[in-house]
Records
---
Amino acid sequence: MCDVAVRGAGGTWNRDNVILFAPANGGVMRVSGAGGAPTPVTKIDSTTGETSHRWPHFLPDGRHFLYTASTGACCPAAKPATIRVASLDGAESVALLQGAESSASYASGHLLFVRADDTLMAQPFDLRINRPAGDAFPLVEHVGSEGMRYASFSTSQTGVLVYGSGSRLAQQLKWFDRAGQNLGTLGETAPYENLALSPDERHVAVTLANGSPVNRDIFVIDIARGARSRLTFDPGADTSPVWSPDGSRIAFQGMRSGKAYLRQKRVVGTADDEPLLEAPAADFPAAAPTSWSPDGRFIAYTLGNGPRQDVWILPLFGDRKPFPLAHTSFVELSGVFSPDGRWIAYVSNEGGSQDIYVQPFPPNGTRYKVSKDGGTHPIWRSDGRELFFLRAGMLMAAPINAAQQWDSGTPETLFFAQAAAGINPSRQYAATKDGKRFLVNSRPQQSGAEPLTVVLNWPATIQK
């Protein structure tokens, strides 16, 4: 049909042979069903922090369509998404639902979408004015969804509804050895979003979605006892925990009054968390820490969102003026210091796909590619002799020899990690110091394929 350089986030096809589709970042695009060059239909509003338009869905007239305008990672996002309606003629779009972290569709006189608690909702919708015509009400609970804001349901104009069960809110922390053998679980099933193993390997810091309305906070799990304690309590979302080298503090991204901050808090004691850095307004809503240097003097963090992400370094001494490590027109993220502090690994898409690169630290303009055919989420072994990363769900290990100068070998596949669908730069696994065990934020094991449920004449189930 046409070339698209990034992963997709939905498509829709009308009777006039027009296809709308959504790249994961950017606005909705249009192309003929006969193929050709795609052209934009919607434009990202960067002044409000929008990063993508997703899941277009044509309304019956074939001209108007629904889509989800989102800001940053889901769920919940630092700034909630909005379901909007637009048209092929380029008229200004109109917001229909605020705070809807879901794809949406229309059928049988109703707008359908999934709420944050995984409930499928229906709302009367007037096609004459393309506006809601009544209050939303629940149809089905526990409908599957995930971090791209896709909701696993579909409807037809003949009154048929099909949906998949399950929840994005259930993850399990599992231990694996290098062969992928399951060594057990840690804690209970919960909506974990990322994790970090403490330097003494006695605790794990996690981001956990909790409460109603849902918020994200940092929790610490005692590995020996499996007990979980809450570290942050602010109503703003707190994510992306990173341990200090001595294990006394945790750095994290904290949202405060609509702004993204790099913050830190002591693990023991009652002192409040404190700001380290406020992200520039143009880079809302992300300043996510990814690594703390072994000497405690620097924090690496990912600044920006969507197609505008770079690796920056915050010094914790002197004037504390941050500086970029990888700052180009490409996406760079997930910077991680080597155990001796002489190197920093990160992810970049400069070659067309996300791969692992390494630079000296401090940077001198040179860089080396480690992965082949893709790679994300780098983690060093404690002796610096291996660099682990994920590639298409597989946990990889690249041999490293950098005692004198940089040298890396061919990456080896260890096992399928079963990692949850994480949004970069969130970390979905951790490695022990000896590189023999891995803690993975895993999708719960299913006894079999999850069923799809088909409902015939679903409008008849609506209580009048």
---
Amino acid sequence: MSIRDGSASNRHHRCVLLNRDGVINRRVPSGHVTSWERFQFLPRVLDGLRLLAENRYTALIVSNQPCVGEGLLSANELESITRRFLLEVALSGGNIGQVYYCRHREGDRCACRMPLPGLFVRARVEHRLILENTYSVGDSRSELAAAAAAGCPTITMRRDAFLERYVSGVQAALTVSNLFEAAQLIVALQRERPVGFEVAPSLATGK
């Protein structure tokens, strides 16, 4: 499942791949976000998304949502929650270009459920990304494993990250405590790279 935000534009020169639960919104202990009432933005998320948009980044969401496959909510209910948080992000100045969901259960043996990189591959094709130059932010082992398998540089989100020192160098394990810190880090790391660096040369003039 993918949901495209009609306000987003593929003319943006950079993309960032973000997990949803644990990065955008709080995880529900021992459960899933099955209604808008259970969806809570994490601290500084809207600030982080706005900072990315101000620097001409489009955010793409990649997320396992097995609650649909498990029958805990319908596809339409999931879409309703998604459109609501996309609206909140847009009103705050952020730009989420598309949302990619895997709705399958763990036992369905699909190719899109993380830690497999299927969602990342789809984003690469549809947005003409060079994943080696596209940062991914996640908070769980499965998300980080999927990003690594796809070839993305990863940023780990941990709420206690402020207790640790940043490790220098883009090849180091990068850890942040919220999405605003991740956005600051991404902007700083890629500030000197040429505009449009994610677009593969072979795809830049064709479909």
---
Amino acid sequence: MSAAAALAAPALPDLEGWSATAILAWALTEFSPRIAVACSMQDAVVVDLAVRLDPAVEVFFLDTGVHFAETYETAARLRRRYGLNLVRIRPEPDAPVAAGDCDACCAGRKVRPMARYLAGKAAWVTGLRRSDGPSRAGARAVEWDARHGLVKVNPIVEWNDADVAAYVADHDVIVNPLLRRGYDSIGCEPCTVPGRGREGRWAGSGKTECGLHAPLVIAAGRP
């Protein structure tokens, strides 16, 4: 995307303080059918919120080919429970498997495949939360994703771990069983170990993000 296109951010509403359901309702009304909900198969909180408003909403999963068995089992459970309109995004055929180059692995198995998929969308929905860590502390409920040229909606951006746990308990939400085995953040099997917060992701590499939530986002409501 050119620099000019990246700066062409539309006027977006400031939905800070709105409930997650209200944020999603706005997004679905504004962008359907060219909107999709991202799901990493860590938990189904955002999926559950979205399908309550639109059971046919498109949900996409970055199937890197190297996820934990529990992650694939979680995806199957979600499909059975919701009759989910699930799209699996496959990696590039020649994408490496870590082997000391996590950046190349993430690029070929996540970043570029997702970029191609989102090229046909007007907005995407994520489960990103400010409490996830410093790299996400500035996230907003609605942002302009300059890298992909579309609107990014983060309906649970204000939630903390207790909020997530309460929603899971109240609505019997499906979660990846690895969460109960010390994995606070679940990525691909070769690069993920048990750990608090995101410390188990790419452990020892200094890497904290795969590139899906790159700092190329212009937030709504800010100059």
